[in-house]
Write a structure and sequence with these properties.
Blueprint (H helix, E strand, L loop, with lengths): L1 E6 L6 E2 L1 E4 L10 E6 L6 E2 L4 E2 L13 E2 L8 E2 L13 E2 L5 E6 L15 E4 L3 E4 L14 E5 L4 E5 L6 E3 L31
Antiparallel strand pairs: 1-10, 1-14, 2-9, 3-11, 4-10, 5-6, 7-8, 12-13, 14-15
């Protein structure tokens, strides 16, 4: 049994998925062990459904996001992150999300760049990418990454946890498809990214 716990330090910190980067057929989180929402959980404003469904942290990361009154929907890219209540869960300030994997999470030397654990959140590059009418501005520039941190801990037995160094939901936003050139592609690409 491998467990991972995320303890949020940020208001409305979001965690889409925690996954081991191993060669198993299903490297995704399989079970929610505990979800204790913290403060600052917000709602998906078009539907007013709160971001409090921990089941969204299970399975493969979101590759396509739903349309939104002021969002494009479409393929998940570094400029178009998952943002709907059925795609992300908010942990909230002081909250906890603990998940479990059916497959072992291992420290494997053959993993690309030595990375064994990937956190998929709803980080995205923010900037001047939209015109006042919300149409895409291809001349826009990135002003930084919109991300929410948190503390990540791992456990082999679900009792004794060890903190993981690094950042949750940081500099590298999710890119759902490897072949897209449009950062706001309305449809899926033909080549899913190899998470």
């Amino acid at each position: 049994m491998s467990c991972i716990k995320s303890v949020s330090g940020a208001v409305a910190a979001s965690l889409v998925l925690i996954t081991a980067s191993v060669a198993d057929a299903d490297p995704w989180a399989d079970h929610v062990v505990n979800y204790t929402p913290g403060t600052g959980i917000t709602n998906d404003w078009p539907t007013m459904v709160p971001f409090n469904n921990p089941q969204t942290a299970l399975g493969s990361p979101t590759r396509l996001t739903s349309p939104h009154p002021v969002g494009t929907g479409g393929a998940v890219t570094p400029l178009n992150a998952p943002f709907r209540a059925d795609e992300i869960v908010s942990i909230g300030r002081g909250g906890v999300l603990e998940i479990r994997f059916d497959e072992p999470v291992t420290n494997h030397a053959a993993n690309p760049f030595g990375i064994d654990l990937l956190i998929f959140g709803n980080a995205f590059f923010a900037g001047s990418f939209f015109n006042p009418d919300f149409s895409f501005n291809p001349a826009g520039t990135a002003a930084g990454v919109a991300a929410e941190g948190g503390a990540i801990e791992v456990s082999a037995d679900g009792v004794n946890y060890v903190a993981v160094s690094g950042a949750a939901d940081g500099l590298f936003p999710t890119n759902g498809f490897a072949d897209l050139t449009d950062p706001f592609a309305p449809a899926a690409g033909a080549v899913p990214s190899n998470f």
